[in-house]
Amino acid sequence: MHSVSSLRTKLERSIEALNFQSSPKELYEPIIYTLGLGGKRIRPIMVLLGADLFGGDVNASLHPALAIELFHNFTLLHDDIMDNAPIRRGKETVFKKWNANVAILSGDTMFAIAYDFLTGVDPTLLPEMLRLFTKTAREVCEGQQYDMNFESLPAVTIDDYLEMIRLKTAVLLGCSLKLGAMLGYATAGDANNIYRFGENLGLSFQLQDDLLDVFGDEEKFGKEIGGDIVSNKKTFLYLKALELSGPGDSSALQHYFSTQTMDPDEKITKVREIYLRLNIREKTNEQVDFYYQEAMKYLAEIRVEETRKDELKALAKQLIGRVY
């Protein structure tokens, strides 16, 4: 089995070796800039880990892994525009550094290149892999639309929110691992179990991401803290606080999450005070742990030697063990 660090090194070398068309530079420079921002490369590493788990060829799996990385970054370019986010991985977002039109078009190009990278696999695997990739791409867009809808809906349930983040975030982790499993010629049962492992891990990861947005360290988190509060996003923290709050806190929360004119720093401070008073940090951590344990149950069902799962387990712990 390959280690996560060795797989990351392979990926970084593959990304550095990418030779995009140089003209028009306004189209390709933002792509190079985006991929150069780094990140942990979690999703493409999952493709490689999934292949390696079932004895697949890691080197032959690099192009599908790059397809996932390109697709993921395409979604971030568009997501940053919709969220009006100025910082991504500690640097200016593409639409801030260039403009929204450039970010849209460069993102679209990344999506097209992602499909091109995916087509280099064993032809017997290609139809099923394309179906999974396309289904996942559609689901991610559905999740993003639900996310935007929630900003204006008067009432959103916790179940609604969990389904939204399953679509927007979790299915891509499941897809990454299942693509890798297909490249390793896993059985249908094992491929489905590794998908469910990734999906539940994705739910746990996103809930913790929501938590870090409120209580994280901006330098370590790589994004501005409190962005979800400022943009009135109805995250698990907000919905759980509404569920547990009395009339006073409930009224205050609904006011804070319906205004666009309040001073951002004051708004973040006031909302965080309510969350702390209602133990929302602890409640969210409980939900993070619930989905993490669900993920581990699916991983346990996969029929390979237990030692072959060690790198996946270590990666899962790393993802959910991020510091505040």
**How many strands?**
2
Helix and strand run: HHHHEEHHHHHHHHHHHH
Shape: globular
Number of helices: 16
The H-level CATH homologous superfamily, spelled out, is Farnesyl Diphosphate Synthase
Low-confidence stretches: none
The CATH topology: Farnesyl Diphosphate Synthase
Query: What is the CA-atom radius of gyration, in angstroms?
Result: 20 Å
Structural class: mainly alpha
What is the mean pLDDT? 93
Strand arrangement across the biggest beta sheet: 1-2
- Could you give a short account of the major beta sheet? 2 strands, antiparallel
Q: How many domains would you count in the coordinates?
A: 1
Helix content: over 70%
